[in-house]
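Training component of the fellowship. As part of building independent skills, the fellow (R.M.) carried out the full modelling exercise for a liganded target. The chosen ligand was 2-acetamido-2-deoxy-beta-D-glucopyranose. The inputs are recorded below so that the supervisory panel can assess the work.
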Amino acid sequence: MVKLSLVYFIAGLAIATPETRHCRCRPHEECWPAHQEWSRLNDTIHGNLVAIRPVASVCHEPEFDGSACKAVTENWHDSLWRAAQPGAVQWENWESWAEHNETCYIESEKDTKCSQGRVSLYSAKVQTAEHIQKAVAFARTHNLRLAIRNSGHDYLGRSTAPESLQIFTNGMKNITFVDNFVPAGAPRGKSEGHAVTMGACVHLAELYQAAGETNRTVQGGASHTVGAAGGYIQAGGHSPFGARGGLASDNALEFEVVTANGTLVIANEYQNTDLFWALRGGGGGTFGVVVNVTVRTLPEAPVIVANLNLTTSLGHDQFWDAVSEYHGALPELNDAGGSGYYFGFPILPVNSTTEISAMTSFLLFAGYTNTSAVDDLYAPLRSKLRKLPGVTVQYGTFPLPSVNSTLQNKWAGEGGDATGGVAAVISRLYSKDLLTSKDGPSRLVKAWRNLRYGPGDSFRGHAVGGGAVAANGKKIDSAVNPAWRKTITHLVISRAWEANATVERQHAIIENATNVEIPLIRSVEGEDQMGSYGNEAHPYEPGFQRSFWGDNYPRLYQIKQRWDPEGLFIARLGVGSEDWDDAGLCLKR
Ligand SMILES: Cc1cc2nc3c(=O)[nH]c(=O)nc-3n(C[C@H](O)[C@H](O)[C@H](O)COP(=O)(O)OP(=O)(O)OC[C@H]3O[C@@H](n4cnc5c(N)ncnc54)[C@H](O)[C@@H]3O)c2cc1C
Ligand SMILES: *[C@@H]1O[C@H](CO)[C@@H](O)[C@H](O)[C@H]1NC(C)=O
Ligand SMILES: *[C@@H]1O[C@H](CO)[C@@H](O)[C@H](O)[C@H]1NC(C)=O
Ligand SMILES: *[C@@H]1O[C@H](CO)[C@@H](O)[C@H](O)[C@H]1NC(C)=O
Ligand SMILES: *[C@@H]1O[C@H](CO)[C@@H](O)[C@H](O)[C@H]1NC(C)=O
Ligand SMILES: *[C@@H]1O[C@H](CO)[C@@H](O)[C@H](O)[C@H]1NC(C)=O
Ligand SMILES: *[C@@H]1O[C@H](CO)[C@@H](O)[C@H](O)[C@H]1NC(C)=O
Ligand SMILES: *[C@@H]1O[C@H](CO)[C@@H](O)[C@H](O)[C@H]1NC(C)=O
Ligand SMILES: *[C@@H]1O[C@H](CO)[C@@H](O)[C@H](O)[C@H]1NC(C)=O
Ligand SMILES: *[C@@H]1O[C@H](CO)[C@@H](O)[C@H](O)[C@H]1NC(C)=O
Ligand SMILES: *[C@@H]1O[C@H](CO)[C@@H](O)[C@H](O)[C@H]1NC(C)=O
Ligand SMILES: *[C@@H]1O[C@H](CO)[C@@H](O)[C@H](O)[C@H]1NC(C)=O
Ligand SMILES: *[C@@H]1O[C@H](CO)[C@@H](O)[C@H](O)[C@H]1NC(C)=O
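Fellow's submitted model of the complex:
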């Protein structure tokens, strides 16, 4: 036996070629493309190649530039500005490479060195599918680490990669509505009806604005700058109108994709069906570069917004009892078509001397015009809450004329999202079965009550499942986490650190999140039940394959091997990423 394994070992050495077989080519190595080769790539993509530095580099010596630094400082929290900078993403922790002490924080001293971190070295600011094909071919030929960068919102570090070439989709913003969409390859006359095709970098707010003019709606999330065709829809995409329209990916009809071998393919129900299955929930940055997506649109509808606020004195037991009653009422509100968000603040400072506990909820009822009908739905909950001494309840319903006006007024109007800091979250999907079981709501609340909260910290409830999300599970076979079909609420809490936190402190927070807090929120329904939403999950989620994709993982892994056998598209915690190191630079075996 010993001899045999020695033979294998030697044979292994014999076939192993230099590091480049197992690792991506890195800038200090001979394999790195020469200047002329980069220039040639630049020519083939019509001068759209740029060498990049982290955006805060102009605030540090020796690159310091007072007026440029002032502009960066002023724009630091503006997601629209960030979306347009190849040297930035939305969260500064993913611009840095903490494990290698490579950071370029605006908060650090002027004479602190600005390191490249996870920001790519070159950016291909692609405008067309052909540009994408050239950039993919170049990365493949030269064995480069490749990053696909859309809005840069990703919470798991999937849109940056150290020492990489970046495909920057920001120029691809075409939006085209059609009345009768016929997927390529569909039988003659097989129309999917009204649909919209959007380029890779269309932001949700841009999509809503365009849709508003057509008297149709598109199923999407609550953000201005999140990319409708990017990581959002490719990992599922939840919406405050989930009960009505399902997940964003449930509405996808066709993707045009540049695959790892540089071919432009169409994936839909009639061709490349495995890719179509994977792109609806399998996660961004993994199967190819999506050039554009076509999604079904839905008719306009009036909306009633129901707002419920709960407050108690600080840390009152009745606060948690009220939160539990609220969760117990969610299944019925959801069955009646309600979906939306709620935010709980166990320690909420109201002024310099007083703190209270509070929760505020906004559920949307599409298709309703009669506020009394919605009031009736809330009557049982309000009556239960009235019986809890010490709980103050505020409740109101507001009719809005359309889905368009709800999205544009409430969440995705003028301006952008507030980003720029450090982001890290933990989250969990919870089922309708849990919330309809006798002690389910109180077990859920007990777990979330045991998390640490500082003043102003909140748990964020996304009551975005149920209704069409559940019903679509019977009609649509896609890669999306099967747990979504049973989900009513997706609960999230931030577990970030300060920009100047030491690596040790970051590790301590990450350790506690993965070893203590995630097990706690997972234990409510058991480790193998449910899971979490890959787009809003912890960047070190334990067992991410099962957590993000459940039983769909083995098939996703196979599809990944078929379309990208060499692992050109590797995203942190993406399908197949377990074969690579955290930076996606070297194969583990
Ligand atoms: C303020 C805010 C609000 C949010 N609201 C919601 C919400 O309401 N509902 C919801 O479901 N999620 C929401 N999210 C989470 C969001 O879905 C994720 O952050 C998602 O990763 C964003 O995708 P993106 O393409 O915009 O970002 P990026 O960070 O640019 O990309 C994310 C991932 O997708 C890949 N990718 C991007 N474009 C392409 C492409 N063309 N082809 C292939 N891969 C690509 C990237 O490589 C990366 O792996 C929100 C996030 C934030 C910060
Ligand atoms: C690519 O070409 C453009 C236009 O000629 C030029 O401005 C740019 O600096 C070039 N990029 C690189 C990396 O050389
Ligand atoms: C990290 O970098 C900072 C600033 O460049 C330096 O002061 C510090 O000693 C470095 N730490 C480690 C562990 O290398
Ligand atoms: C989608 O992308 C393909 C490939 O670039 C292009 O041919 C097609 O015109 C695009 N469709 C729309 C509606 O933008
Ligand atoms: C958008 O796509 C459509 C369909 O492919 C095309 O006719 C149109 O010219 C494109 N518009 C822009 C601004 O690229
Ligand atoms: C690209 O890969 C796909 C999927 O493996 C394959 O069908 C196609 O023939 C390949 N094209 C080229 C040009 O290699
Ligand atoms: C908009 O769509 C709604 C729902 O389909 C319909 O009732 C209404 O008449 C339409 N309005 C216009 C101006 O077409
Ligand atoms: C703070 O708020 C509490 C509760 O609303 C109020 O009773 C108190 O007077 C306020 N204190 C100050 C200093 O404003
Ligand atoms: C509105 O709903 C209330 C309560 O369900 C009902 O009594 C009333 O008739 C409804 N009004 C209209 C105009 O439908
Ligand atoms: C609930 O609280 C929010 C935030 O304080 C407030 O804007 C809203 O008016 C309150 N709702 C009701 C019904 O009082
Ligand atoms: C959509 O909503 C926005 C914001 O309320 C409004 O300005 C616009 O007129 C609406 N569009 C339509 C067609 O109602
Ligand atoms: C770990 O997390 C729990 C729950 O949030 C918290 O109570 C505890 O203080 C944390 N421990 C450390 C060392 O951060
Ligand atoms: C981080 O910055 C805050 C102020 O923003 C300061 O109070 C704290 O001491 C700093 N921590 C470290 C480790 O430098």
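The panel noted the following from the submitted structure. Residues 372 and 403 are 20 Å apart (CA to CA). The two ends are 21 Å apart (CA to CA).
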